[in-house]
Amino acid sequence: MKISPEQLLSFSSTDFHTRSLDLLRERTSQQNIDLEEIIRRIEVFQIAIPSAALGNGKSGNGRSRTGGEPRSLNEKLEDIGLLQQLTRKTNAVSIYIPWDLPEDFKEVRGLADELNLKFDTMNSTRFQDPNQKELAKLGSLGNPDKSIREEAVAHNEEVINIGKKLGSKRLTVWMADGSNFPGQSNFRSTLGWTEESLREIYEFMPSDWELMLEYKPYEPNGYHTVVPDWGTSSLLAKRLGSRAKVLVDLGHHLPKTNIEQIVATLMYQNLLAGFHFNDSKYGDDDMNSGSIKPYQLFLIFCELIGGDQDKAQNWESISWLIDTSYNTQDPLVDLIQALEAITIAYAKALLVDRKQLLACQLNGEFSQAQEILQMAYLTDVRPLVCEARVRVGGAAEPLEAYRMLMIRNKLVQERGARSYHSIF
Fold first, then answer.
1. How many CB atoms lie within 10 A of CB 33?
2. Which residues pair with 322 in a beta bridge?
3. Beta strand pairing status for 92-97 and 118-124?
4. Strands (E), 311-407
5. SS3 state of residue 8
């Protein structure tokens, strides 16, 4: 389904929004802040949606279904098109193979063009292939069996070839390789085999492609993972070449990890590939972005903006993707909430007086530096986010529009109450 321009127009800005925006202009008038420039930057900031996020995830274990879930890649593109109409914040989709293998590339490309969507990062998922040999439980790219490593490399090469047909230029690699018991694996050997396999994939990629290497401290293995942290990931990336960089998944960290420092360190080396936006309560979680640690998300964007302005790493070189698992709620509602939370954190970070902050840092004025960050963080930037969205044709309040237009009910009518596309 599509939302008509007339329907969207009925959810344009209100008098309350206008007054809120005028009040914000008045409050910031003495702070040397260019609100028009901030609105422009919010307008162009886009976040990709993964093809895996449009349903309720796992279908077993008595999971309840939302109903009206997409049953094919084409229907997933249609749902992302709905998100783009409402939010004007997501113009790309990230595909997981073989979960969402296109049956007709011409048809898929045509539908994406019709919906004004492009194809962002390709994701390999060899770790969940049910046709793997028994020894695949010992890993994929780092498996002791060379034939299984070759299968895993061939899968990634297939994903690259599919991505070339879709117009993508990035490959994300995450491995479930690791062990559950001391002595089960040889740390150095598995790391070496992993590097060899990644090198084959890297050399197979077209010269204008980038490899994004993800890390994860634990799960599904409880004792060790081959690429457990940003240090190991950056080590491998450096050994592969300049087109390999580190992907930061916000939920894939141990509790109390200083993720903003990791981001700054990667940008310092021009090694930051991009983000999987989500949140974490205990560790290695896939919760909704900004639902648990909104201040951390704000601080991460502060480092991103600072790194770009200081020419450590160019903003345009970074990939942005939501990566969450919604098993109990309407996934489109959760995605709208995530897009809003990410954009709000970004907008707040844009308000930081970086010149004054730098002066405080150099002069040791610690409390004043903290106040500068707090002033930006505590500012209600929703009028800016709303204004940016309305100016490019979105709904002033996307969630309100989604509910009042009864989009989920219409999707259930079109696809059925039991429709789903399980990937697990």
1. 19
2. 277
3. parallel
4. 319-322
5. helix
